[in-house]
């Protein structure tokens, strides 16, 4: 039977259609496969990039951690060094209570540090010295306590032997405190006293330790019965004459008393020098110290001051006259008194009486001068005493200060000139006396105010700056 043409065509078309459909499916599968490969490659690239970013972040975090750790290590190291430095400072600090404690104690006593007396700072004896003489600084401190009671000095001490200058002590405690450092030792039978300090005025803010006393301790025949009796009668520390003064412990007790008296004179001379360059009407303490020395030794103690360096040169001259009079040198005392009036008046003296009248009329004799002149009665004729006690046109009276720091106002201002000055003892240190903008004017610790006449107003005659 012949094939149906229509069926044949239909079968052919179906075959072609099936072939074309199969080819399209194959193409689509290939396109899908390529798309999947491309997406997979892109995903791999993204993943690789993300992993690289993660690694970079991890590296940065690691570096930051190391930096932070290094900074912490450095900070901890610095803190450790600071702790060690503070521990060493406290361990070796001269004052047991630590840095700043001495200054705080001084400020409690003298809130205005410009009004404080010099701080006398004692250091212990050297540990290699004779143990029997280690109490020497303590005895010198005790002898100086009357000056502290008079507010002429402030006595303190260090707990350790220190080299001077001591940077930490100066920085933390003595930065602007007038300080006199005292070191006393007995080495091989010789008394050695050294003085130094800081902020004492002049061109040297810090003064190195300077040996002002070095002398052999007297022994043997020097200690005569008369000398021992005199030592006992003049002692201010309860000294009693030992039964055996020639040898052993008895001689050492006598030497101790002798060393304390001699060292006391040197320290008091330095304290007096500090005040004499700054204060008017200052009652010198050196006379009382010299009274504890034998006259042969006291006569050799002289503290020269150059002209123009003292705040109140006439008052110092009167002290010197009284000192000579007490030593029995009346002619020398009379000559010094005449020279003192010449220096006060600036012209040759025409007699003590006329000098007193002239000085009083010019307001050059102050109340403290009159008090000291009355101690010189053997040198003054009766009319001089009358001229001294007679009221003048200028009335000087003490008045309370209601506000502000104590201050005395006088008609004659004293401004120490900037000249080369002597500082202390033998040998004397050269210093420069600063120009004082407002020198303290004090009479026996009380401020004074000057007025002229009752008819003048309350502020008449007041000299102010």
Largest sheet: 5 strands, mixed
Q: What share of residues are in beta strands?
A: 5-15%
What is the multimeric organization of the chains shown? single chain
CA-atom Rg in angstroms? 46 Å
**Gap between N and C termini:** 155 Å
**E-strand count:** 9
Query: Order of strands side by side in the largest beta sheet?
Result: 2-1-3-4-5
H and E string: HHEHEHEEEHHHHHHHHHEEEE
- Rounded mean pLDDT is 76
In one word, what is the shape?
A: elongated
**What's the total helix number?**
13
Q: Which residues sit in consecutive blocks of at least 5 with pLDDT less than 50?
A: 393-465
Secondary-structure-based class equals: alpha/beta
Classify the helix fraction into a percent range.
40-55%
Q: Describe it for me?
A:
The protein is α/β, with parallel strands linked by helices and 465 residues long. Helices cover 48% and strands 11% of the residues. The protein is built from 13 helices and nine strands. It has a five-stranded mixed β-sheet with strand order 2-1-3-4-5, covered by helices on one side. A two-stranded antiparallel sheet has the order 6-9. It has a two-stranded antiparallel sheet with strand order 7-8. The radius of gyration is 46 Å and the shape is elongated.
């Amino acid at each position: 039977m012949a094939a149906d043409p229509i069926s044949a065509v239909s079968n052919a078309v179906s075959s072609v259609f099936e072939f074309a459909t199969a080819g399209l499916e194959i193409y689509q599968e290939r396109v899908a496969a390529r798309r999947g490969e491309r997406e997979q490659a892109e995903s791999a690239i993204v993943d690789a990039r993300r992993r690289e970013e993660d690694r970079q972040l991890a590296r940065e975090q690691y570096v930051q951690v190391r930096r932070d750790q290094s900074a912490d290590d450095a900070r901890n190291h610095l803190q450790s060094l600071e702790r060690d430095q503070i521990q060493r400072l406290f361990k070796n600090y001269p004052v047991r209570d630590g840095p700043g404690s001495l200054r705080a104690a001084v400020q409690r006593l003298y809130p205005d540090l410009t009004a404080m007396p010099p701080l006398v700072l004692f250091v212990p004896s050297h540990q290699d010295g004779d143990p029997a003489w280690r109490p020497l600084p303590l005895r010198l401190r005790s002898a100086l306590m009357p000056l502290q009671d008079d507010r002429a000095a402030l006595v303190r001490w260090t707990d350790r032997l220190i080299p001077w200058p001591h940077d930490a002590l100066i920085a933390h405690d003595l930065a602007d405190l007038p300080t006199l450092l005292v070191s006393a030792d007995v080495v091989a039978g010789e008394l050695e006293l050294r003085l130094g300090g800081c902020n004492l005025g002049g061109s040297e803010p810090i003064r190195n330790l300077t040996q002002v006393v070095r002398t052999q301790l007297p022994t043997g025949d020097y200690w005569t019965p008369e000398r021992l009796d005199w030592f006992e009668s003049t002692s201010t520390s309860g000294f009693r004459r030992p039964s055996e003064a020639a040898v052993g412990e008895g001689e050492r007790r006598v030497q101790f008393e002798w060393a304390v008296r001699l060292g006391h004179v040197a320290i008091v001379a330095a304290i007096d020098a500090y005040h004499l360059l700054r204060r008017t009407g200052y009652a010198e303490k050196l006379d009382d110290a010299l009274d504890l020395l034998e006259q042969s030794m006291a006569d050799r103690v002289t503290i020269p001051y150059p002209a123009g360096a003292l705040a109140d040169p006439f008052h110092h001259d009167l002290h010197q006259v009284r000192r000579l009079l007490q030593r029995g040198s009346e002619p020398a005392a009379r000559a010094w008194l005449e020279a003192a009036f010449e220096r006060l008046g600036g012209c040759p003296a025409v007699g003590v009486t006329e000098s007193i009248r002239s000085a009083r009329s010019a307001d050059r004799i102050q109340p403290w001068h009159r008090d000291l002149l009355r101690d010189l009665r053997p040198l003054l004729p009766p009319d001089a005493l009358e001229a001294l006690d007679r009221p003048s046109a200028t009335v000087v009276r003490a008045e309370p200060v209601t506000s502000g720091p104590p201050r005395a106002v006088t008609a004659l201002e004293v401004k120490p000139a900037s000249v080369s000055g002597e500082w202390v003892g033998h040998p004397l240190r050269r210093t420069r006396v600063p120009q004082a903008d407002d020198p303290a004017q004090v009479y026996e610790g009380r401020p004074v105010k000057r007025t002229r006449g009752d008819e003048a107003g309350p502020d008449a005659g007041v000299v102010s700056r």
